[in-house]
Amino acid sequence: MDRCIVLVDAGYLLGAAASLLAGEPSRSRISVDHAALIQGLRERAESDTERPLLRIYWFDGAPDRVPQPEHRRLRVMPRVTVRLGALTRSDGRWAQKGVDAAMHAELTELARNRACSDVVLVTGDGDLLPGMMAAKEHGVAVHLWAVQAADGDYNQSEDLVAEADERRVLDRTWITKAVRAKDLGGVCAPPPVPRPEIAAILSAPLPESGLSSASERPTEEAEHASAAGASENGTEERAPAPKGVPTPKDLAALRAPGVQPAQPPQTATLRWSSDKGWVDRPGAASEPPEVASMPTLAQLTTAEQRWADREEDITTVGGDPFEVGQVFARRWMGRLGDHGGNLQKLSGMYPRVPHRIDGELLRYAARFGLLAHKDDQIDEHDRYAIRAGFWREIDVRTAPEHAPAGE
Fold first, then answer.
1. pLDDT at position 196, please?
2. Which strands, in side-by-side order, build the sheet including 4-9?
3. What is the distance of C-alpha 315 from the center of its chain?
4. 10-residue stretch averages of pLDDT, the chain, 407 residues long
5. What's the pLDDT at 109?
6. Sequence-ordered list of residues with C-beta below 8 angstroms from that of 263, at least 6 positions apart, any chain
7. What's the pLDDT tens digit per position in 117-171?
8. Residue 362: beta bridge partners?
């Protein structure tokens, strides 16, 4: 068949791109526009082979072979098929398992069935040499693409290079159309964007510091001051938690009869609904009944809306913790309506998210790979960012300028 197929070893492509742009092969150092990358691969393959594209196969590793957010976005793109191997951690380093074998099997099967006339391989692993040789024996032209090496030398197996029918190099100019380094030390790194609302929340004082209660919303001046401190260091820093932070067991002991632990102020509650740290809060520590009974997003969502939400999650939500909190709040608020004026009561609970809503928010965030693989818990800084995004969206929806005319 006069068609071309592209087989991409994502570990090689993105690792080599990270080395080129950020100075080290860690994919966490780069941001990738996957739609632009796929489009670039398609256009380059059709140009080089002078054949129409049949399909792009994207081979990558994932913990327990569970698709990550980038895999979910990729596999719904036209002409893209995702194949996942395992991603295991050994001696503090991640390693792919089964990716090379899957690429070898796909390559030989496509050639044997004469599914294409040209195959483009984006890889550097010499383990694919037998598959390349088998494809050539079936009359398939093999094009080997390399990512420009950071040190100017080969970053591919020499045997693989020697056996290829055609060879091309994806240079820095081509790579940077879809890939950018994240930090200032790398090439084409975008400047960090300060987030005053996160900086203010992370720096909220505890009672031991003798400062004002974190239950009060930070003033605009405090937000700007926190943002300025974060931007000077290039990162947002969280104030270290004091020693002796109560655990869930300590919280239960406070309600146990006959137990008299060292107690905080009687009106204290948690900084977040499921986080650590005491703060003074006037009034009862429990949630108002009208807030505690507010319906969850799942209760407000129809089957049709659930399908549309999943489609949006796959295709447009990037998985940034702050963005995830905003998306969740936007959907919940849009379907909740005013709910008897209780949104203002909810706003007054800042920064404490109602318990039922908070649990659903964190479960939603877990879909985007925001779980630490070690203990299946969301990173503490990510939890702050998720909830900050939630509150930012609440503030936008409950601001006076959004009130109906005549109020």
1. 57
2. 93-97, 80-90, 53-62, 4-9, 118-122, 141-147, 166-170
3. 13
4. 93 93 86 92 96 96 84 89 86 79 93 94 92 94 93 82 93 93 49 49 44 38 41 43 44 48 43 44 56 84 87 76 88 77 71 83 79 55 84 77 43
5. 94
6. 254
7. 999 999 998 999 999 999 999 999 999 999 998 876 678 988 999 999 999 999 9
8. none
Structure tokens at 293: 């009974």
What the block records as the tokens of 222 is 């405090």
Nearest CA to 77 out of 47, 55, 50, 60 is that of 55
As given in the structure block, the two tokens for residue 50 are 């002078």
Question: Domains plus CATH for the chain?
Answer: 4-181 (3.40.50.1010), 204-402 (no CATH)
Mapped to the 3 state alphabet, what secondary structure does the chain carry?
A: CCCEEEEEEHHHHHHHHHHHHHCCCCHHHEEECHHHHHHHHHHHHHHHHCCCEEEEEEEEEEHHHCCCHHHHHHCCCCCEEEEEEEEEEECCEEEEECHHHHHHHHHHHHHHCCCCCEEEEECCCHHHHHHHHHHHHCCCEEEEEEECCCCCCCCCCHHHHHHCCEEEEECHHHHCCCEEECCCCCCCCCCCCCCHHHHHHHCCCCHHHCCCCCCCCCCHHHHHHHHHHHHHHCCCCCCCCCCCCCCHHHHHHHCCCCCCCCCCCCCCEECCCCCCCEECCCCCCCCCHHHHCCCCHHHHCCHHHHHHHHHHHHHCCCCCHHHHHHHHHHHHHHHHCCCCCHHHHHHCCCCCCCHHHHHHHHHHHHCCCCEECCCCEECHHHHHHHHHHHHHHHHHHHCHHHCCCCC
Predicted pLDDT at 81: 95
pLDDT, tens digit, 9 for 90 and up, residues 8-61: 999 999 999 999 998 888 888 888 999 999 999 999 999 999 999 999 999 999
